[in-house]
Amino acid sequence: MERVGFRLQVKKSMMAEYKVRHENVWADMLQALTDTGWHNYSLFLDESDGTLIGYVECEDFEASLAAMGATEVNARWQADMVSFFESLPGATADKSFTRLNHVFYLP
Fold first, then answer.
1. Is 22 tagged catalytic?
2. Name one GO biological process term (predicted).
């Protein structure tokens, strides 16, 4: 199992609404994440500056990311969420995050 951490930057002005959106993630989005191999997926938001840290476990992260990227629901979700983030060089959050180096795991 691959453990992956990543970072994005949520606009400070959008943090409250970002949290609200994640209280009601679309059922078809949740199903697509599960179907494409995303497990123990978590997001953590630093409300002092908008830093968003994501964590996910996958058998093969690149394959799961690609499979998710091929879904119609992901395209809708990414389009709906793009305005929440600071600069996205990859045009959407799923193509713009900074992957973090995994340095420790306590099983």
1. yes
2. rhamnose catabolic process
